[in-house]
């Protein structure tokens, strides 16, 4: 009788885990297709704003269900948001007396949502996703990429004010601005409403496909056809996104894949990745030179203009601009109230509503933290993000010692910059997709993902001395 009871308990816990995975899948679908709904389906002002928050109740429901079923371990990803809630509210009280700007309730609520709501999702994914669930998430991303790639090509053929680019909205409040590239061409945003969100999506797509193609897990091999189409879609998306940041990230992700495979003892595979990358680069060069030369010209003009601006504004040019991501905050210390202007003043919502009092770096969250919470709040948030980026990198390095951990290393190379200083707080699409990608990377690097094909000796050597990832009641399988 006892074995039957134990079997029933295991079956019940597995059912709970699968329910959580399905709920997270729905959240991911909302993240990927939310922009399309806002641009072409729900085009009225109120509806567009509500769509932004449509996935939030489901995120809260996942947390409630996971906690009630013992499927979410108490970790920094769960504890930090609790302390963060009290910390932000305390700073808001101080801002009432120290900030020249009055507190705006809607911005405060938006800040609480962007700073705190999605952080525990990392732990939920980490504790409940198995290898097949990681692959399932990547399949959803691939489907989005296969839809987005031809859409971006079409967007590049039409002017910025066409419905395919700015949506079906009837006025400025409901239409989305599509940034120009150069020479009259536009940056394709695909399923997203902004180049920033589409840029992160492009990088995650490329890293996911490359990581799975270079891995040895049987689930990876079963999806070769989808991944091949996904790689072609990733190349198209990268070419038509018009983002220098994405182009810079391509060699970084390639390096992550090469390092991951080399660390797993598969030097031949790493060499093949380099050769395949060279072939793709040659193919892209041929396409841009002979088929779409106007796009190549636009990129050349864009890079030249950007280099001229950065050389005139920053002493070290482009490198100085990148370095400014981390040093601008100290220049803001003398211009921003000690406790910040107000929670939410550094988000894109504040820009739309006209509350931003000073210019800030749109590509970095560190400036935004100073606007939102002052230097003390920035220090606390930056410290957490530095820890998170280092912790995740360490996990991925350990996982990369085994063949199935290559995906984790490749994902990390795509998400590390966003985890450290990207717009996890300031931009809505990156807020959702960024935290999800961090969670997916944490799951891919966990002991549960890489243990299946590895020998006990290898696992003991790789994970010796490290704490278990599963937590109380979470099966290591």
Short description:
The protein has 477 residues and is mainly α. It is 72% helix and 1% strand.
Explain this structure.
There is one protein chain. The chain is mostly helical and 477 residues long. The protein has one domain (2-463). Helix content is 72%, strand content 1%. The chain contains 21 helices and two strands. It has helices at residues 2-40, 45-52, 56-68, 76-98, 105-117, 119-128, 131-157, 163-166, 195-213, 218-221, 224-241, 244-263, 267-291, 293-313, 318-332, 348-353, 365-399, 406-421, 428-444, 447-450, 456-463, and strands at residues 180-182, 185-186. A hairpin with a 2-residue loop joins strand 1 (180-182) and strand 2. The two termini are 23 Å apart. Residues 451-477 have low confidence and may be disordered.
